[in-house]
Amino acid sequence: MDSEAVTPERDRSPTADEADLEGRSRSVMRERLADWWDDWNRTLLLALACCAALLLVSHFVVEPFEVPSSSMENTLRIGDRVLVDKLAYRFGGTPRRGDVIVFDGKDSFSTTSGTDYVKRVIGVGGDRVTCCDAQGRVSVNGHALDETYLHPGNAPSSEPFDIVVPPGRLWVMGDHRADSADSREHLGDPGGGTVPVGKVIGRAEWIAWPPGHWTRVRRPAVFSHVPAPAGSHG
Predict the structure, then answer these.
(1) What is the DSSP string of the chain?
(2) Cβ(127)–Cβ(133) below 8 Å
(3) Which one of the listed residues 108, 119, 139, 157 is annotated catalytic?
(4) Exposure on the CB side of residue 72, measured as CA atoms within 13 A
(5) Which of 25, 69, 70, 71 is flagged as catalytic?
(6) Which of 85, 102, 138, 160 is the most buried (most CB within 10 A)?
(7) Residue 128 burial by CB count (10 A; 0-12/13-18/19+): exposed, middle or buried?
(8) Active site residue 71
(9) Which of 227, 218, 21, 233 is nearest to 100 (CA)?
(10) How far is it between the farthest Cα atoms of the chain?
(11) pLDDT tens digits for 18-35?
């Protein structure tokens, strides 16, 4: 009986060209992985640098604050986020009448630490702030203020007062006078209701949130006509 020998089939060894192609493919893959790793590292470092920069800016330059109450309506409303310039008074500058400031109320407005307030500066050191004149207005150094920024329907003050602001301190009031526990509320506290300039955190510059309320927080022009305190040199 005839028989035919069958040769077992063996795996074919790759040719030199195929081996070279496979080597190049692996090399390209390693290069792509290395590039991806480098890109990821750069992205991570950039993100960390941005976070660090934001933290530094927030701590030293501009910090957002959320308005917690209606005491500054309608200028600032509950939930507004205001950007506070923390350098406004750090290089020789001092708060001016009409500025909207954020300050630490410990030992003046509050007995607890970490309580921040937002109010408008009405009087600075040496100013005599009184209320009310024949038309019910607040006066600073004898100049009556036409406070067009007050909450609609509010009187400038529901109670009379007459105070000379001590040096280095501020007399502050909310724009919503009927709903603001401001310097008037603390007349019997240490400092007579005034706030130390050293406790001022910064000046409110912009309303950044919500989008429909974006605006610059400006110093009202009425304060530019207030004369210097009696006995001062400017």
Answers:
(1) ------PPP-PPPPPHHHHHHHHHHHHHHHHHHHHHHHHHHHHHHHHHHHHHHHHHHHHHTEEEEE--SSTTTTTS-TT-EEEEETTTTTSS----TT-EEEEE-BTTTBSSTT-EEEEEEEE-TT-EEEE--TTS-EEETTEEP--TTSPTT--S-SS-EEEEPPTTEEEEE-SSGGG---GGGGTTSTTTT-EEGGGEEEEEEEEEESGGG-EE----GGGGGPPPPTT---
(2) no
(3) 119
(4) 26
(5) 71
(6) 138
(7) middle
(8) yes
(9) 218
(10) 138
(11) 555 555 666 666 666 666
Q: Are 219 and 99 in contact (CB under 8 A)?
A: yes
CB 202 within 8 A of CB 89: yes
Tell me, which fold does domain 62-225 have in CATH?
Umud Fragment, subunit A (2.10.109)
Residue matched to tokens 């077992």 = 8
Q: What is the pLDDT of residues 151-195, one digit of tens each?
A: 999 999 999 999 999 999 999 999 999 999 999 999 988 888 999
Name the residue among 136, 159, 156, 135 with its Cα closest to residue 147. Answer: 156
What average pLDDT does the structure give for the chain? 82
Where in the chain are the domains? 15-60, 62-225
Q: Residue 48 is inside which H or E element, if any?
A: helix 16-60
Q: Does the annotation mark 119 as catalytic?
A: yes
**The two structure tokens encoding residue 29:** 């893959």
Cα 90 to chain centroid distance, Å, stands at: 16
